[in-house]
Amino acid sequence: MFIERCVTSLAEARIAVAQGASRLELCSALEVDGLTANRKVFLDIKRELDIEVRVMLRNSHPGFEVSAASFVQLADDAEWFKQHHADGFVFGFVRDSQLLEAPSADLLHICAPLPCTFHKAFDTCKSLPDSLERLIDLGFASILTSGGYATALEGASCLTALIQQADGRIEVISAGKVRSNDVYSLANTIKTRIFHYRM
Q1: Distance between CA atoms of 129 and 133, rounded to whole angstroms?
Q2: How many folded domains does the chain comprise?
Q3: Is pTM, for the whole model, over 0.90?
Q4: Which of 103, 118, 170, 185 makes the best surface tag, with the fewest CB within 10 Å?
Q5: What CATH number is associated with residue 33?
Q6: Assigned domain for 174 exists
Q7: DSSP letter at 28?
Q8: What's the CA gap between 190 and 97, in Å, rounded?
Q9: CA-to-CA distance for 36 and 74, rounded, in angstroms?
Q10: What digits encode the pLDDT tens for the residues 89-121?
């Protein structure tokens, strides 16, 4: 089982590692579905813990659009985290239920060669199968999704279809109200062993 845990602090990261997390997603402001990670928290985690850390890049809410000014800040953040040994990034731009491909491609280029995850903004897209293909073409390493539903369990059939469609070309990470005590039952339903959940 591969478990990615979403954390916002060193204390949460310690707990996640102690509970067997395979990878961390570091962000801030979970009350608005996550914003760019705190730099000091990132440095503290990297200094103390031996685990892969992917960093959230998002500086506006609500929604998942990006302005020219906010993109400049995201690019600066990406460069800083790269210089300080981030292991990857998590971001995603969507407007009116459509992927914003140009800024996504530009930020992927800045983050390269580190792997990037398209976050759950994916679930707001009009056509998940079509969007999956576009993200593969753009070069994302993975996507976070509950199949367009509120929870991974509700979206199980769609998640299974997306995993089959991806066919190993991109990592489909099941997310959405997943809890540690239901991962194994979900794995039997969704037929995957890659999950993401919060503390």
Answers
A1: 7
A2: 1
A3: yes
A4: 185
A5: 3.20.20.380
A6: no
A7: B
A8: 25
A9: 8
A10: 999 999 999 999 999 999 999 999 999 999 999
